[in-house]
Amino acid sequence: MEGGYLIPANSKKGQLIFNYFRPIDLALFGGSIGISLLLLVIFGAGELWQTILLLLPAIIGAFLVAPVPHHHNMMVFIGSIYRFITGRRNYVWKGWCYREDGNVKQ
């Protein structure tokens, strides 16, 4: 490689907390755990279905920050799907046969 450099595939992980989490991920997960603990203290753990309902914020928070292959985590994956669905669908061709006036060469 003449004057070039190679960036390791995992170079972005060094910028993350514990090599996996962004600050927003930890805030979301910590907030969901805190809400679940607060609900458990207020209402107490009764039957199984009540406990599951009280732990639901923590379960959802853990689901959103769970790592996913080819994406950072589920929250980023869901955001990518949302941006794709709500994004622009009119793709403008600007390939080798595109002219400035907008016509395609024949």
Question: What order do the helices and strands come in, and which of them pair?
Answer:
Layout: H1 23-43, H2 48-64, E1 67-68, E2 71-73, H3 74-86
Antiparallel strand pairs: 1-2
Structure, briefly:
This protein has 106 residues and is mainly alpha-helical. Helix content is 48%, strand content 5%. Helix 1 packs antiparallel against helix 2 (48-64).
Describe the main β-sheet briefly: 2 strands, antiparallel
Portion in strands? under 5%
Tell me the radius of gyration: 23 Å
Task: Output the strand order for the largest sheet.
Answer: 1-2
Distance between the termini: 41 Å
Tally of strands: 2
Q: What is the string of SSEs from the N terminus onward?
A: HHEEH
**Shape estimate:** elongated
Structural class of the secondary elements? mainly alpha
> Low-confidence runs (pLDDT<50, min 5 residues)?
none
Helical fraction equals 40-55%
- Helical region count? 3
Instruction: Determine the mean pLDDT.
Output: 81
Oligomerization state of this entry? single chain
